Amino acid sequence: MSIMLNHTIVHSRDRDAAAKFFTEIFGLPDATPFGSFLAVRLGNDVTLDFYGARREVESQHYAFLVGEPAFDEILGRIQRRGLPYWADPVHRRPGEINMSDGGRGVYFQDPSGHNLEIITRPYSSDISP
Question: Does residue 124 have a pLDDT over 90?
Fold first, then answer.
């Protein structure tokens, strides 16, 4: 049996706001309640299970491989909201898009401070979505 990621828990300051932000920015269906979680299903059948943490949330990094049209749509939503974005993970190149490995990439933050990344090609790879 091959090993595949099924789900991961995303600790959030406000799980409802975090899940809503994510589904709106990425253009996904609303999250589905599952116990204490709000589950957001991604295209590869992985879910991000948003959870309201009862402690300070430590920033994590989540990277998403998207197609070229989806990249434009997501970046457009980021820009329309006036959200800051960067070409690099340490946020030294504001308002820029990186062109690494023949694709495009951008970083932005969710309401809990997680560093989200969208890329159109995996780094150091010939694979595209």
Answer: no
